[in-house]
Amino acid sequence: MPEPPYYAVIFTSRRTEGDNGYAERAAEMSKLAAEQDGYLGEQSARDDGLGITVSYWRDEEAIVGWRRNLEHTESRRRGRADWYEEFEVQVARVERSYGFTR
Fold first, then answer.
1. Residue 12's CB: how many other CB atoms inside 10 A?
2. Which of 5, 66, 95, 99 stands the most exposed, by the fewest C-beta atoms within 10 Å?
3. Strand partners, 94
4. What's the distance, CA 22 to chain centroid?
5. pTM for this structure?
6. What's the farthest any 2 CA atoms get from each other in the chain?
7. What pairing do the DSSP bridges indicate for beta strands 50-57 and 6-15?
8. 25 and 101 in contact (C-beta within 8 Å)?
9. CA–CA separation, 44 and 52 (whole Å)
């Protein structure tokens, strides 16, 4: 990750039953996002039906570019129709970042 500031898009979701093509499409979207200008990376976790994916972006312009991507638009439509019971998205500016690795 670069030095802050940068942006985080936090996507929290609860899935519908069954895969219905979700896993394949999610892998495709991760690969496609990584090709977008301004993409910095992502982290994802799922436990007991709750999924959280955080994608990191250089700036708000990069986030808008990803949102306008036609394949991503189709995936959002399919998500509402088939894959998600509910979801929420937050966009945040990261001002500070630090960590620890043993």
1. 14
2. 99
3. 6
4. 14
5. 0.91
6. 43
7. antiparallel
8. no
9. 6
3-class secondary structure, 47: strand
Instruction: For each of the domains in the chain, give its residue range(s) and CATH number, in order of start.
Output: 6-94 (3.30.70.100)
User: Which run of H or of E encompasses 10?
Assistant: strand 6-15
Nearest alpha-carbon partner for 76 in 9, 2, 22: 22
The C-alpha torsion from 73 through 50 and 90 to 101, rounded to 10°, is -110
How far apart are alpha carbons 68 and 22 in whole angstroms? 20
User: Which DSSP state fits 25?
Assistant: H
Give 74-91 as a 3 state SS string. Answer: HHHHHHHHHHEEEEEEEE
